[in-house]
Amino acid sequence: GQNIDQPTEMTATEGAIVQINCTYQTSGFNGLFWYQQHAGEAPTFLSYNVLDGLEEKGRFSSFLSRSKGYSYLLLKELQMKDSASYLCAVMDSNYQLIWGAGTKLIIKP
Amino acid sequence: GAVVSQHPSRVICKSGTSVKIECRSLDFQATTMFWYRQFPKQSLMLMATSNEGSKATYEQGVEKDKFLINHASLTLSTLTVTSAHPEDSSFYICSARDGGQDYNEQFFGPGTRLTVL
Fold this sequence. Notes:
The structure holds two protein chains of two kinds.
Chain A: E1 3-5, E2 9-13, E3 18-25, E4 32-37, E5 44-49, E6 53-57, E7 60-65, E8 70-75, E9 84-91, E10 97-99, E11 103-108
Parallel strand pairs in A: 2-11
Antiparallel strand pairs in A: 1-3, 3-8, 4-5, 4-9, 6-7, 7-8, 9-10, 9-11
Chain B: E1 4-7, E2 10-13, E3 19-25, E4 30-38, E5 45-51, E6 57-58, E7 67-73, E8 76-81, E9 90-98, E10 106-108, E11 112-116
Parallel strand pairs in B: 2-11
Antiparallel strand pairs in B: 1-3, 3-8, 4-5, 4-9, 5-6, 7-8, 9-10, 9-11
């Protein structure tokens, strides 16, 4: 079966750095997405990785290793507004998104 | 970026009534639209995938006669929850794929909170 694993919840301090990991097992691979979702709102796109390596976009970076079935989202200089759920999703061979359950990130002052 | 609107944002209805939710891509042509449902503290669950002009493909366990999907144009898809019951109360989110993009990002609507009394 297809499976996406990510931690349920993480806590970090304002101004610090946090890394959210995601491992996956899917039938085929056409890219990995990270989305941010605030409570009661729809997800918003953060990043897309289809090749191995690190993609940097401002305070957020995303890394992919296809051979290991592994990705992480790195958030730097954390702000209180970064408190949200972070969803990892993999596009399989049928171009369908397979979603992880999300990681709830709690930022403390 | 591409914008997807969803209407209504919130609806409360009585058990047994039908509710229609609209999903529109405002500045691009959506060759494919997706309908998701999300229960509290759970991840997104894909309900169905619809391509313009053809019948929707429903995920296992989703009743197609209860959740009617129409994708009549490249900018509009509708989800009708027929004979809604309290267990249908959920957050319904649509997304759309831009057929003109190089990769397959899905753009999400703001969601519709359905409460069935």
